[in-house]
Amino acid sequence: MMPVDFHFREKIPVGILGATGAVGQKFVQLLSSHPWFCVKALAASERSAGKSYREAVNWLMPAPLSIEMGNMPVLPCVPNLPCSIVFSALDASVAGEIEKSFAEAGYIVISNSRNFRTDPAVPLLIPEINIAHLDLLHYQPFGKGKIVTNPNCSVCGLALSLKPLDDQFGVEEVHVVTMQAISGAGYPGVASLDILDNVIPFISGEEEKVENEPLKIFGVLKDKAIENRTIKISAHCNRVPVSDGHLECVSVKLKGNPSREEIIECWNQFSALPQAWRLPMAPVRPLHYFHDEAYPQAKRHRELDKGMGVAIGRLRKCPLMDFKYVILSHNTIRGAAGGTILIAETMVKKGFVYW
Amino acid sequence: MMPVDFHFREKIPVGILGATGAVGQKFVQLLSSHPWFCVKALAASERSAGKSYREAVNWLMPAPLSIEMGNMPVLPCVPNLPCSIVFSALDASVAGEIEKSFAEAGYIVISNSRNFRTDPAVPLLIPEINIAHLDLLHYQPFGKGKIVTNPNCSVCGLALSLKPLDDQFGVEEVHVVTMQAISGAGYPGVASLDILDNVIPFISGEEEKVENEPLKIFGVLKDKAIENRTIKISAHCNRVPVSDGHLECVSVKLKGNPSREEIIECWNQFSALPQAWRLPMAPVRPLHYFHDEAYPQAKRHRELDKGMGVAIGRLRKCPLMDFKYVILSHNTIRGAAGGTILIAETMVKKGFVYW
Amino acid sequence: MMPVDFHFREKIPVGILGATGAVGQKFVQLLSSHPWFCVKALAASERSAGKSYREAVNWLMPAPLSIEMGNMPVLPCVPNLPCSIVFSALDASVAGEIEKSFAEAGYIVISNSRNFRTDPAVPLLIPEINIAHLDLLHYQPFGKGKIVTNPNCSVCGLALSLKPLDDQFGVEEVHVVTMQAISGAGYPGVASLDILDNVIPFISGEEEKVENEPLKIFGVLKDKAIENRTIKISAHCNRVPVSDGHLECVSVKLKGNPSREEIIECWNQFSALPQAWRLPMAPVRPLHYFHDEAYPQAKRHRELDKGMGVAIGRLRKCPLMDFKYVILSHNTIRGAAGGTILIAETMVKKGFVYW
Amino acid sequence: MMPVDFHFREKIPVGILGATGAVGQKFVQLLSSHPWFCVKALAASERSAGKSYREAVNWLMPAPLSIEMGNMPVLPCVPNLPCSIVFSALDASVAGEIEKSFAEAGYIVISNSRNFRTDPAVPLLIPEINIAHLDLLHYQPFGKGKIVTNPNCSVCGLALSLKPLDDQFGVEEVHVVTMQAISGAGYPGVASLDILDNVIPFISGEEEKVENEPLKIFGVLKDKAIENRTIKISAHCNRVPVSDGHLECVSVKLKGNPSREEIIECWNQFSALPQAWRLPMAPVRPLHYFHDEAYPQAKRHRELDKGMGVAIGRLRKCPLMDFKYVILSHNTIRGAAGGTILIAETMVKKGFVYW
């Protein structure tokens, strides 16, 4: 076995755990024509195992399910899948145990579930922000395998918008109110009677994640562990009748004293290693500032840069903190399957993947 | 002519300016069976004048237009209407001049438009909060008539939720993110292509109103003028695909240091003169706290207490300020026509109305 | 025990089976202030039994749950409830057995479930149409109890619109396409991911009901049994993102050759015994024709006449059949709980209820 | 000047009339990377003329406006544009005169407007159905130019679904109920207050178009004119809260007596000259039958085959006519801009275009 480089002759075999759910389907869609990865295993609960994927899935994606994927058998979530990497879209109620069993059997597990996000041995990764945290993998206690997690869907866009501000001006406090799409709740998820002509001002466990995950993401790796940052974050999370795309109203307090123009410049200039390496899933630019006073919007910007770009707008002075702005990012692409695949690509590029 | 008391034999004749618009219709609906007021004049633009109200209006209310109201002629907005009080639902582009002309002709003008809200001679009134500001009427420069305004639809619920906190604990800073219903934009208002499956993070002029109007409402009358308060407020305003009911995520900083239970108690106990006087449009209780973690919601609480009650929920500690909570109030009732009618009832009770 | 007349001193004790579901809640709401009936028992599945109603229910109605109803204990669905009449909103998977057990124990069961609708011994009743079918009750095989059913929610408005046409001109063929509200699917019912920005052109079992139930409703009681009519009906059923109110596009072939005006006149004049008796739940007029070319609409007409009136509009010539028109009726009031309560009132008036 | 063949060295210069409207934008989007056509002129009303396209347009498409297109100047709709073909997305109030002036000046005008659809000299074209009608162009009275129209957005999918049935079994009668997306009404079009939580059972002029346009499309060219067919069609048209994609419930009476399987086979096999020629805008297959009982759906199938494929499902016996089925087609692609571009490609291939 050899480390991957960019001239590998065969695609890397990957599997999807929880392949029939809403995020699982997004993995299937995004990976079905991936230049590096080849889906070799679709795994799901006992109830689905044994059926073809077509029979087992209630396909929700706008593009039809391909014949090839539809014919694949659904396998149980046990660590004998014919692949090197598994992407996990498992429900948190079962993800912990299953992901650990795969890691211990030598798989690279890249998970969209929350179970290992707070584990001090596990990177919580946004490749444009904290790629250095992958060094944690040298000290992981999961046998030959590895576990890496991507953050909560509301955190991805927020953290990306804060990253260049933090680098240049220092972020001290953040107030964020989210308006989150229904696809974030999975399927069947939110009942239509609850959300049609309504907003629900509560998402279980979400505010805690938004207030805490960025502290680890912006943390520093010291002595084989992440030292969390001490940014103060306050979050209100709401569910709105929008299919895809999380909108967030952000107020931020900075150490420095930049002008509005400097901030916009700093967002539009922001680029990181995934961009330099031109990773397949990486957006050309992580952040796009729009000057239209009514932008960004889910309907108009969720597909920005393959759904991996974060749209920003409405930067203005905040009477309480320093600045206010609005962000929009695609919750099942940038905030889930797409972000997780970008982690895998980063790990391949960094030499963590053998097959 | 005699001052009104509560044993008056005849109803007070009132008129509605801008009667064909969305708020105008809500006035027609709420006043059609009012115990004190009798609609004697429906006025609108030149385009509508001369038609019957039925012909002129695109009736949007859920209850059918009554035959009696439908048969009334639409009159032009000139100050010769057969009534003492005029409720104004005029568009801001014309409200200033017309309202002034009515006041100078001796009418009591109670307006939902923004034009006179910042005029130092004009009360910006929420009867449960600043009834004392009616004393400004003794010094108004509009001849024998008077002008009183009610606040922006997003301000009403917010200010009511802050009032008892301010009385007992002192409000210092407020951060609010609104999610506002489409009925707040009038008719035709927001295009369906813009709002279906979307949220629009901008409402022209709205954030300025939310940040400034409470300062006047919470101000103190000194030397024949209102001295504004100095609370610092920051607002983000969003339009969501909800028919009626504005939801607002509030973070607040207080001088005092109350417990969560003290705040809930203080909201539930809150009552003011409109309640003591049992004014027809007054809610039994202005504020209702709900313990369900997913409340309040537009769909479930907008009709609370005739649409005049403010629903509150989710009170919890804020990592940045002191507390966070969520409010819901009906934007065209509490926040527009209903609130304006309550001002009229208050003025009758206080002896400002002769007829 | 004595037959009911209209001077009874005490309200009739009633119970609700399946009280926690969407239709069950509508029963609770409509019966909470009923002039004749007093809710004495709320029954539901084993999972809910033992809790207070407040704890057991996910209250979906726009008006808040009353304290009194909220405090009632939820009982199991066994026939020892302290009441004479039970309204059934049970799921069809359990309704058959439970309803039969209540009837055999002597209760009057009036059911919104489909299980007994096709039973030749059981009336399928719309009180304005086939009150004579109550005579079937003299021959029912359920011991001392009785079972009566109300039709499918899409059938109620349709059958009412056809009744006066059939009486005066003879209905031969009907083509109907429904656009049905999400509340018709219960709770949680339709997933928001399936219906937001979408229409689903299928509702399991619905088209069969719409094509068959009217044949029994319009049937004639002969020799202790209903002889079905032979009207030919074709139905397409769709689910649309509307909260309440079923819209139906109808084309009809008649034996007679009436003019458009004669049909409108015949609808507007239609009245039946529930109207003559002024039963509490009866609409003042069952059918209301609207001349506005864009009416009827769910948003504007679902609350018509307490939600018990059927709104009709757009009558025009059909190039294939004779006439086309559109109807709108409230699916959980006229089409479910309200219609079922009207059956109970009719049975009381006809002397079928003892207590 | 030379007739086009498929080895032309330069792209054909085209212009768009009414480029700032909703359909105009869809033309811009679809033509921005077209292999044969190059957009050389964007024209709109006097109000927009003189601005850059970016300034003049309220861009509604999900993909961002390209920099190149955004920089183009908006020209007035006068026949001096630097192109050979103009695509017209003009409002019907002005389309007649402007389109005629372009034709008389020698342009090929392919129009999405209704003005010339019923003109006996003008083809009403769906390239898969009545390509022979292009022979009408030899006798047109518009000077050196030509006018061709594409049908109403609700007619395109319907007529395509009927074409193979008519060829093989003979279509005699059609009953159709449409549920049409809001994008069909242009921008701003339908007010959100009218359509959120609602269905509007009326679209001005639409039913007449659906009942009449297919008669010309299925007509036969005789003696330099189209002889209309005599199929009897009845239509009910509704507006539903869906962004894109018209759903239609169809009942059909046939001369022949095919089985369900024969009909599905006949749909799935259907192919015509645009497919044989592999025209860029042509779908691989015009008709796709889906066996899932709840398909087709706007949300899942509107993008089928580039938005040019028609999804069909739910074929079953009709108690009144012969068969019932459901179709879904994209109203602004297949039913407007895409269909119109396909006409242009067909005309190029048939040698009608010189440049």
Walk me through the topology:
4 copies of one chain form a homotetramer.
Chain A: E1 12-17, H1 22-31, E2 37-44, H2 53-56, H3 67-71, E3 74-76, E4 85-88, H4 92-104, E5 108-111, E6 146-149, H5 153-169, E7 171-180, H6 192-195, H7 206-217, E8 220-222, E9 225-227, E10 232-239, E11 246-254, H8 260-269, H9 273-276, E12 287-290, H10 298-301, H11 304-307, E13 310-317, E14 323-329, H12 333-349
Parallel strand pairs in A: 1-2, 1-4, 2-3, 4-5, 5-6, 7-10, 12-13
Antiparallel strand pairs in A: 7-11, 8-9, 11-14, 13-14
Helix pairs in contact in A: 1-12, 5-12
Please explain how this structure is put together.
The structure is a homotetramer of 355-residue chains. Chain A has 355 residues and is an alpha/beta fold. Chain A is 29% helix and 23% strand. Chain A folds into 2 domains: 154 residues, NAD(P)-binding Rossmann-like Domain (Rossmann fold, 3-Layer(aba) Sandwich), CATH 3.40.50.720; 178 residues, Dihydrodipicolinate Reductase, domain 2 (2-Layer Sandwich), CATH 3.30.360. In chain A, the strands form 3 sheets. A 6-stranded parallel beta sheet of chain A has the order 3-2-1-4-5-6, sandwiched between helices. In chain A, helix 5 crosses helix 12. The longest helix of chain A is centred in the middle third of the chain and has 17 residues. Chain A is globular.
